[in-house]
Amino acid sequence: MTAAMQLTNVLKTLADPTRRAVFERIIREGEVAATGLVQGSKVSQPAVSQHLRALRDAGLVAERREGRHIHYRVAPKGLGPLIDWLGHYETFWAERFANLEKLLKESE
Amino acid sequence: MTAAMQLTNVLKTLADPTRRAVFERIIREGEVAATGLVQGSKVSQPAVSQHLRALRDAGLVAERREGRHIHYRVAPKGLGPLIDWLGHYETFWAERFANLEKLLKESE
DNA sequence: CAATCGTATAAGTATTCGCTTATATATTCG
DNA sequence: CGAATATATAAGCGAATACTTATACGATTG
């Protein structure tokens, strides 16, 4: 799998708002079982399960089985393709947009 | 339009490899007419035109008319929603993944 | 073992997407 | 004005997407 394909996967996976909401909840809660993610979600359990699979396939989350429960956590390396891509073009934006580092600081 | 919706637009727009390739060419070439982008593209002129519209609608490129030609250039602010989103969750990743700034430096 | 709980998969469907060909809308040139 | 150039829009189509309900699988419990 090329870097471009990985980036495409990450972008496609994060582009869906429902799936991104699941991802953000995992970020905030640290480690959550799928049940916990279904609670408070607008969509059904299978839909959440499908989103979790997509997130895992994209390398954005990892799972840990504990009895009947499967706990999901963020796999920060999954964002690597996105970070790399932004960094790769940073020099082109720097000329007219300061630079990404500065932006990251300002956005906090 | 909420911030989440803008982010969704940016992610969706960049998620298509053909469209992202158009965007990357605009980045590299600085300012290009649509004709130049059609040359060397795998897809037809209308397809390129549709991608350019999507990029403009997402705020990722700006255009400047000059006679019959329309020159496209990157609108760096268009990446704002993406940068902001990454920055917003930076603190959550920092614990286990150093921080985005460091990553950006390393990725050069 | 049987019932139950947590999660995944299967199958079907409506919507969205990216592409094509054909046509329309500027803008310039002779 | 009429022809040519640069770009956009229209219409249609096949593939992908995100959801649903129904069912299967895996692990625990009584």
UniProtKB/TrEMBL annotation, chains A, B:
<keyword id="KW-0804">Transcription</keyword>
<feature type="domain" description="HTH arsR-type">
    <location>
        <begin position="1"/>
        <end position="94"/>
    </location>
</feature>
<dbReference type="InterPro" id="IPR051081">
    <property type="entry name" value="HTH_MetalResp_TranReg"/>
</dbReference>
<dbReference type="InterPro" id="IPR036388">
    <property type="entry name" value="WH-like_DNA-bd_sf"/>
</dbReference>
<dbReference type="InterPro" id="IPR036390">
    <property type="entry name" value="WH_DNA-bd_sf"/>
</dbReference>
<protein>
    <submittedName>
        <fullName>ArsR family transcriptional regulator</fullName>
    </submittedName>
</protein>
<dbReference type="InterPro" id="IPR001845">
    <property type="entry name" value="HTH_ArsR_DNA-bd_dom"/>
</dbReference>
<dbReference type="GO" id="GO:0003700">
    <property type="term" value="F:DNA-binding transcription factor activity"/>
</dbReference>
<dbReference type="GO" id="GO:0003677">
    <property type="term" value="F:DNA binding"/>
</dbReference>
<keyword id="KW-0238">DNA-binding</keyword>
<dbReference type="InterPro" id="IPR011991">
    <property type="entry name" value="ArsR-like_HTH"/>
</dbReference>
<dbReference type="Pfam" id="PF12840">
    <property type="entry name" value="HTH_20"/>
</dbReference>
<keyword id="KW-0805">Transcription regulation</keyword>
